[in-house]
């Protein structure tokens, strides 16, 4: 569970802030905020949620390779976006991760404390930002459908961004069987 939490934290950081799009990756539960959700441009399952609310971050692209992520493999996340305002100390991210109907994580992270995981630090200046980060997907990720919802806020509770993603990891060995039939 510790490695899964690290994965989730890393992905949330990478994708929730222009310079720190660390989306804690892998998931989608029935309670996920789908109101006004819109796909993030690029090759990923990410959606911007709560789009009727003003947000400081506009993601212009998020690519995952491979997409969908595979357990035991490296995942490369490439993200780009524009911040309307600088992000200062005190910014935080509320993260919910569910596995099917079971909530695995409901935690608040200090955004600035997570930024060193993506070679960044606060303050994050306003303007266009790009980020590429590679993370290892643990072999131990159980098969199933995961949902992640991450809402990042400034110290003054101004919404930086709301992101959600659903990822399904197939049963162990299933992907290899499918690969055999692809040829």
UniProtKB/TrEMBL annotation:
Keyword field: Lipid transport, Signal, Transport
Keyword Glycoprotein assigned: no
Entry keyword Transport: yes
Domain MD-2-related lipid-recognition: 46-167
Signal peptide: 1-20
Any Pfam family: E1_DerP2_DerF2
A single MF term (Gene Ontology): sterol binding
InterPro entries: Ig_E-set, ML_dom, ML_PG-PI_TP, NPC2-like
Gene Ontology biological process terms from the UniProt entry: intracellular sterol transport
CDD domains from the UniProt entry: PG-PI_TP
Role of this protein: Catalyzes the intermembrane transfer of phosphatidylglycerol and phosphatidylinositol.
Family: Belongs to the NPC2 family.
Quaternary organization: Monomer.
Protein name: Phosphatidylglycerol/phosphatidylinositol transfer protein
């Amino acid at each position: 569970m510790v490695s899964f939490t690290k994965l989730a934290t890393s992905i949330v950081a990478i994708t929730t802030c222009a310079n720190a799009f660390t989306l804690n990756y892998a998931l989608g539960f029935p309670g996920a905020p789908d109101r006004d959700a819109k796909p993030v441009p690029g090759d990923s399952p990410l959606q911007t949620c709560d789009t009727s609310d003003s947000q400081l971050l506009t993601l212009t692209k998020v690519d995952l390779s491979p997409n969908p992520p595979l357990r035991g493999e490296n995942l490369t996340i490439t993200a780009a976006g524009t911040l309307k305002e600088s992000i200062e100390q005190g910014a935080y991210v509320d993260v919910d991760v569910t596995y099917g109907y079971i909530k695995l994580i409901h935690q608040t992270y200090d955004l600035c404390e997570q930024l060193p995981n993506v070679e960044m630090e606060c303050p994050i200046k306003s303007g266009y930002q790009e980020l590429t980060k590679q993370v290892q997907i643990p072999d131990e990720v159980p098969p199933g459908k995961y949902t992640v919802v991450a809402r990042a806020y400034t110290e003054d509770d101004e919404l930086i961004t709301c992101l959600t993603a659903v990822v399904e990891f197939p049963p162990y060995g299933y992907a290899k069987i499918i690969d055999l039939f692809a040829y």
